[in-house]
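Quick question about two entries, pasted in order.
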Amino acid sequence: MDKAKTSTESRQFLSFLLDKELFAFEVLKVREVLEVTRITKVPKTPAFMVGVINLRGGVVPVVDLRLKFDLPATEATVDTSIIIVEASQEGETFVIGALVDAVKAVIRLDGGEIEEAPKVGMRLSGEFIAGIGKKGGTFVILLDSDRVFSRKEMDAVAEASAQSDAQEA
């Protein structure tokens, strides 16, 4: 049987909106939530990579999840936020910002409230989805931060950022 359906363990998720749909990252992977701040564009990066921000002296790449998931672009509003999450690739953990329409709430889901993502009919690629949460008659698409943000993409951002810094020097 599927572990998600049989587990009685309760887990917490930070829910957020993208194109009027509810998504969530596991709270254990979320470092903090920020208001949208100045984002510096990095040349030669994918369109969904909106740039980098300065987070307490460190450079953090920011991905527009709307663009990453092939959703239509939209203007930032007062609710637009950056969720700072951890992702692990090949044994290394890195920090990335996820630009979202609005952060909603921390929700608790029991194992029985989490199902596997359907294999067909999903607007998003199943590779990013850890499961589907069911809370109060509402579905929540649970994202796997380790799979949403690939190592190849992060390496491309680091390389482009380094080239940009070298050109400025």
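Here is the second entry:
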Amino acid sequence: MQGKKVSESRVIMAQVMDPECANPAGNVHGGNIMKLIDTVGWVAATRHARRHTVTASIDRLDFLSPVYVGDFLTLYASVNYVGKRSMEVGVRVESEDPIKGTRRHTASAYLTYVALDDHHKPTELPTLILETDEDRHRHAEAEQRKQIRMAEKTKEKSTL
């Protein structure tokens, strides 16, 4: 199986936040943003695998600033790490006030996806070809997060 470059699966998705996205406080509901994060992450994962993928976990979804109705939301996703059957996708969300032109880093998340074969079973993935220093930096950080996730899973299993 031939490896894939990070740039081959990178995704940028943009959307205007409409009134139906609002929560009772008048801001965009975090759940709507979470769905968009999962969607853009899924596209990047599926592009890399060229197979159906499913979300296995979400790490560190941090909301850093509010999003308002009428804001222009831009989501950036790229594959950071690929194991044998799972991969980490990083997603960055920025919001823009289209009138003022101000941009804010709104949220960041790391999601793990698993590729499925034709029988809906986890299957092997193409390796990840790191092209830039930024790719290598993201990959190294993703390896550290994977080690932490694995340690947490081991700890959880021992307490059951």
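Reply: The first strand starts at residue 4 and ends at 5. The first helix runs from residue 30 to 49. Hope that helps.
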